[in-house]
Each structure stands twice: as structure tokens, then as C-alpha cells.
Amino acid sequence: MKSFWRDGDRVREVELKSLDGGRWRVRVDDSEFELAAERMPDGKLRLVGESGVTVAEVTPEGARRFVRLGVLDFVLERETGGSRRAVGGTHDGGMEAPMPGVVTKVMVVVGDEVAKGQPLVALEAMKMEHLIRAPRPGRVKKVAASPGQMVQAGVALVELEADAG
Amino acid sequence: MFKKVLIANRGEITCRVAATLHEMGIRSVAVYSEADRGALHTRVCDEARFIGPPEARESYLNAEAIVRAATESGADAVHPGFGFLAENAAFAEAVEAAGLTFIGPTAAQIRAMGDKREARRLAEAAGVPIVPGAEGADGRALVRAANAMGYPVIIKAALGGGGKGMQAAHDAKHLAEAIEAAQRVAASAFGDAAVYVEKLLEHARHIEVQVLGDGRGRAVHVFERDCTLQRRHQKVVEEAPAPTLTADQRAIVTHAAVRLAEAVKYRGAGTIETLLTREGQVYFLEMNTRLQVEHPVTELVTGIDLVRAQLEIAATGKLPFEQHAIRRHGHAIEARLYAEDAARDFLPQVGTATRVRWPDGPFVRVDAGVESGDAVTVHYDPMLAKIIAYAPTREAAIERLLGALDDTRVHGVVTNLPFLRALLRAPAVRSGSYDTEWVEREFLAGFATLMRAPAPELALAAVAIAEASGAPVARSATPNGAARPIDPFAQLGRWRQQGLGE
Hints:
The complex is a heterodimer. Chain A is an all-beta fold. In chain A, 0% of the residues lie in helices and 55% in strands. Chain A contains no helices and 15 strands. Chain B folds into 3 domains: 4-103, Rossmann fold (3-Layer(aba) Sandwich), CATH 3.40.50; 132-199, Dna Ligase, domain 1 (2-Layer Sandwich), CATH 3.30.1490.20; 205-450, ATP-grasp fold, B domain (D-amino Acid Aminotransferase, Chain A, domain 1), CATH 3.30.470. Residues 473-502 of chain B have low confidence and may be disordered. At the A-B interface, strand 1, strand 2, strand 3, strand 4 and strand 5 of A face helix 8, strand 17 and helix 16 of B.
């Protein structure tokens, strides 16, 4: 059985095959190995492989899985259907709210020609002001933000017209 | 002494203040907003009062609702914690007007030190050197002043503090944008867009002195803290004593701090923040008229409970101890755990801290505001906890803190734990050779590379196997904390550490 996991800005592919005696044949991207897995009474996984024994703790939270391996933590996100969309906030270069917050200033209106890196919207959340900048030069097609407005992460605040080229 | 104290705050500092109240046999009253119904700080206090909607403006910043809660609960004093209304003079006045004691300085002192321009004048009058700087009626005047002073400069909110809204500019070209951004944050955060400009002292260390004043002109210092490890002017790791401070420099900076506190007849606990330049000069930055986030490192090296000292000064008008009785021993270091994604430019994170495990062990202290199942919302500061370690030497304290961070697990919301662990392992941090800009100038690039590395294959295998083997991995809690994963020992609370549970 195959599954896809977002790991930072890449998508990783995992294929599992159940073998006898709690053993698994695992393929992660291009690398294949075998593991014995045992669930301990506290819910942790005891993984025994060629390199030794590792205790893993997996906590699901929505599509995300928080994994602790030994003393290191990783966060992976389930990708359904192996889709490879970009991480929120970098979609089309970052005109989405990267965090929930309050819009403090809108610096462009529809029709404006903007240069790459030009500030478009100022967003404030949790003590920080964050400037959303144009990822490329272009003409503003839509502005979906107004000062004082509360926005959720991932909401597109400004849209640029499609590249002429 | 007071019989009942209302804590006008939330999160870890409310829990921290409540612990001292509990120890002193004083009843504690928490306040909470709609977003904090059932939050940890409401559970550790003897009672809790609802004060309003999630937006801080309508709850934790709502002086009227808080004073009403204090009066209705029969409290005889109010402890403001830090942040929110802690440095709001009108709130201190409202508390006193209701016949209650405000555990902190006088409203006039808050007002004077709250206007950073006025604070600079007071420091100068007390003979404490101030950072070269200028005020200006408008942006153009500030640009002129900056041009005259030379770059780089830093723009600060006149009524700001704590690093909030500060903007550095390295040349005239970026200054206008920096002034505008600083004014915007100042207006929204402090209700006044006024800003001033200071010379940005490069390669400096942030040294601050803890003082206690009796309100009648006597003050003592409780030594210094070094808070040089900062990111975007926000402290991340603090320690006491300051590792690079010479005995002479320590004498200069602590005496200057006491002089300023005595000159303004300061009442209660306060902190004088300074910059120590590479050349060994000390300059006054600002005075914070409240308990600091990083107060635990001072407590660990002196054995003084600063919250107890605040309560005693507020109740008696006397300093609880003389200067000669304040001794320092060993080294303490603190790391601030934030709900921030270090892999994505430290963006604040929200969610549910589904499974939380705090470290314990000898000489490790955790001041936490969340437990398993608690929500982290967009409405408040993303600091979840402070993890503090004490040891005889700095080296041993760092080792102990690293061990404690290894034992820390927060699942359900992304935290800056990987950043803290990497930071404390950096050779420059071990050797103490860094300044306030070092994290951004030298550390972050290498750290970002580390964060971009793919997760080990075993992590992916673990996730896929956990998924495939079906059994519930952990019960996911709902945001309001209704379905908490059950940890039987968590219910034992403070008895757990003493081994008296079950």
C-alpha cells in the first residue's frame, strides 16, 4: 500500500508490504528495507531494523503526523492521491496569508503594476508584522483584503494576472 | 499580607504567579476569555472569572472587566503578570481606584518609563549613559536625525517595549519604509504612532539588571541577566550571570541600575535593560516596569522568589532583604518554547497541543502554560513554555538544558524546539562569543539548511506503519480540550514530583 507525505517542500512516497510476524517490507522513495514493528502498551512503536532498535511516537493531528524518533521530532503531512500541490504560502509565490492574522495595510489596488518584491499587504499576528510581497512583476487582478480584516492561513489576499508570457 | 490575589493575565505567567500564591497560602483568581475556557491557567488557580470574547482588546486588555472580576471575587490585590495590562498606567489607577492594591510600580512610574523618550531623559538625569538617539515630530525629522547620526539606526515605538515593532534601517533608502512599518505597529499595538530613532549599536550584548525598589527611594539589584541570543529583537535564550561581563562592568551596570531605580523612587520589581558594546561601554536601553519573562534565571542563581518579593513589597512597602544578603551562585539558562515553525520563517502556529511532555529531573524548571489537549490560538502570544536549567557552571547548565529539551515533546502544534536544540549546540553559543545580531547574521542560514534536510526514512516508515497497523495512535483532542488523552499521572499535579502519587 502506497502513501504520500509532505516533508518540508518535498513529497515523499512510502510503499508498505506486510510480511509475517509483524515484519514489514518498506520502500521510501528509492530506498528499500525491512523492519519489524511492535506497538508497545503506551502506543509507541518499537521499530527493529538492520541499524538497531528505534522507538517512534506518532501523533496524528488532522492531516499532519508528529513523529518523534529518539529525541528528534519531524512533522509530515498526508497527501491524498499523491497530489503535489505547493505548500501554503508559497503557492504562486506567496500572496496568501502565511499565518492567521489581521490585515493592517493594503498597499495596492486592482490594476496596479507591481514589481517583484514590492510589498502588497501588511499582516499582523502574534507580535509580528509580516509583509506579503509580489513574487513576480505583474498587474494586480484581485485584492481580497481590507485593513482590519481577520484572515486565516492560506487565504489568497492578492491575485496577479497570469503571466503575459 | 493579601488574602486573595487576582492575576490579570493568562498562560504560563499566570500559572507561575499562582504557584507562589499557593505556597504563601494566598487564594488565587484567574481570568479567562472565551478562547481560554478550561485553559491550564484557569485550572491551577483557586477560582476563575470569565472576562470576555477571545480578542485580547475585549478580555485581557479590558481593564474594566478585569477590575470588576477582582472586586466581585473579593480579591484585595491584582498581579498583572507581564504583557497585556502590566505596563498600562490607567489600569494601575483603575485597580487602586477600586480600593485594591496593584502589585507593581505606581501609575506615574509606569507612565514615565512607558514613554521610552521620557525614560531616556530620566536615565540621563540619573547619570546612566543612554544610546545616542533622537526624537522627531514626523518621519522627515527622523530621517534628518538618522542622516546626521549615521547608519545603521533602529526605529522604536515611543510607547513600545519588549522589542515589539522595532525596525532597523541600514541606509537612508530603507529608512522611510522602516519608519512607516514601525509607526503602523506602534499605532495598532500601543495606540500611539509616535516613534523615535536610536543608533543601532552593532556587536553589542544585551545585559539587563533586575531591581527591586521600596517606592520610597531605596532599591537593591538582584544581579544581571544576559539576553543576547535574540531573533528579530525577540529574546530566545537568557541566562544569569552574564558570561562575558567582567567584575568591573558588573559593578558599573548594577550600580547604574540601582541609581536609576532610587532616583525615580521605584516601587516593586523592574528591569533596567542595557547594551554592552564590544568596547565595554554600557548604554541604557529602557526600563521595564514589571516582572520579566526571563525572571526564573535570576531566581535560580539567587534563590529569591521574585513574585514573593513583589507581593511583600506591595503589602508592606519594605524591601524584603538588604543588598548584602543577595548572593549569587552557579549558572542558570532558559529557553523559550514558541509555537512557531522554524522551517517556515518562524511563522506562528495554531492548533491543539495534543500530546505534551515536559522534562523533569534535578535542577530543571518548566514554566508552562499548556498541557496535553490545550489549544494554541491565534489570539495571543505564541510562547508555550520556558524551560530552565541550573548547574554549577555555564557549560553544565547548557548540557542540562539540552538534556531537558531532548525530554521535551510537544505534538499537535509545531514548535521552535529544533531551533532551540540547534542553537544551544552551536559552538559560538558554547563559547559565549556572539552578539544580539548573531542569530540572524550567522546562525540562521546554516540552520535553514539543516531544516531543509529530508526527514529520515525511518520517520516515514513509522508514520506509514502507524497508519497501516490501524490501532489508534493517540486520541486527537478537540480544540476546546474536551477529549484529552488521559495521562493518569497528569491528574496528580504537584504531588507527582514528590513521589506521593498513587
